[in-house]
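As a warm-up, study this chain.
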Amino acid sequence: MQVSRNFAFLKIHSLALVRLGTLAENYFANDPNTCLIKLRQFGEQLAQLVAATVGLYEDPDESQFELLRRLENRGAITGQTTQLFHEIRKVGNRATHGSYGEHGTALSHLKYARSLGIWFHRSYGGAQQFKPGPFIPPADPRQETAALNAELERLRAELIARKAELTATQSQAEQAQALAQEEAELRQLAEDLLIETEAQAEEEKAQLAAQLTVMQAEAAQAPAQTIQAAIATAQVVETELDLDERETRRLIDAQLREAGWDVDTETLTYSNGTRPQKGKNLAIAEWPTANGRADYILFVGLAAIAAVEAKRKSTDVSGAIDQAKRYSQGYQIQADETLPGGPWREYKLPFVFATNGREFVPQLETKSGIWFCDVRRPENLRRPLRSWYSPAGLMDTLAQDIDQAQAQLAQEQFNYGFDLRHYQIRAIRAVESALAQDQRNLLLAMATGTGKTKTCIALVYRLLKTKRFRRVLFLVDRTALGEQAANAFKDTRMESLQAFANIFDIKELKDAAPDRDTKVHIGTVQSFVKRILYPSVMI
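Now compare it with the structure written out below.
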């Protein structure tokens, strides 16, 4: 077996990781589907190593989704590491259950897996100063698209440039010695990885299981401060991950695809002839405008509805909204597409986005997340989102008239089917006034017995009746409180003596965990909240 130089550094942590990375790389040229399957296994074993390091390893048969969720809740994986783990998991699952893989995806996932390995080595592996060098491209596939060929050529050029830098700083004797040492280490590693019988394979599996058990026991005995310090280091190292532009764009593709957009930054491009079509929700890359090529224009059917500016991780995402606004200003009809109304002052497209592919991190507010601005109203400010709008979500937002809703709220009386106390009415009016000023974080503090649930019922009814919001999430931290609130909503009689539940649809969060498992319960709620589409309000 020819050991991959991209994954050899992981030998001090797990020979199994080196084997899986090497196998994935070796399969790349002829079988990208199997390459993705091996990378999924790589991600699973790396996540188990993370869990054992911080004392969260429980069951070797635990699903990758559940393990990653527990690691994320503990803070052991954050931001882009979480996203990369899940992307490798999801695409690997699709490759396992059908012929999914293509070389462009496989190349990206090889780079994702290596990035995760570097992150682990620098953080939980104690090698924070480790310098891995450039990614070494795998063997050429038999069939290459133009985009894949260009990316492989770029990687080769980067590798050659890196070798030239090293050559300039080393003597010929030092170069020869370093090369001989690396070759000897790789030969020894190849011998260590050699498996010729089923018994040897079972022995390696047993060794990994024993290693994880020992690591878990050591972590369980370690002081809490030690574990927290390791987690803090991992979070710092995560902020230093820097994917190249291609991989950033492919991660953004995956996020848009998950939200319901048909997207591929390398094939669904304007230059390749991709145009909006009836019945399709397309994110078309490199769309020309009078102010430059937009990274994406989002089309719902034939309607051009949003411009997207995509940046690398290190860029200020909030500031990139200005470029997306310029695309909206400079949009020009190219073929059969239409504009969804407007113009809104100088803007042709109603919505603009900017992103660098990273999950939103409050501590890195302007350098993470998906930044959004509804440019139809000059009062609207740019703000970060945790996920992309779906096509339906954008169209619903387009149909929403906030000014009209706020005007209706101001005129709406409180002659419902139940009486409200004066302080409850003042509280509701205060919330509505703050919403009119585009405040997004509000807190009402009410003592026990002062009618919090009744206040919320009236507030929610008013917000939905006037169409100020399309959905409201009423969130509680215990099942009993949820049942109590749901019953109150169902039993409360509103105008014309109709029950609230008969006027507006009430759905319960069915996948919430039992009360006895608070950590799982909170994690489930957090995952659910992150999937909620704005505009929403949480009570």
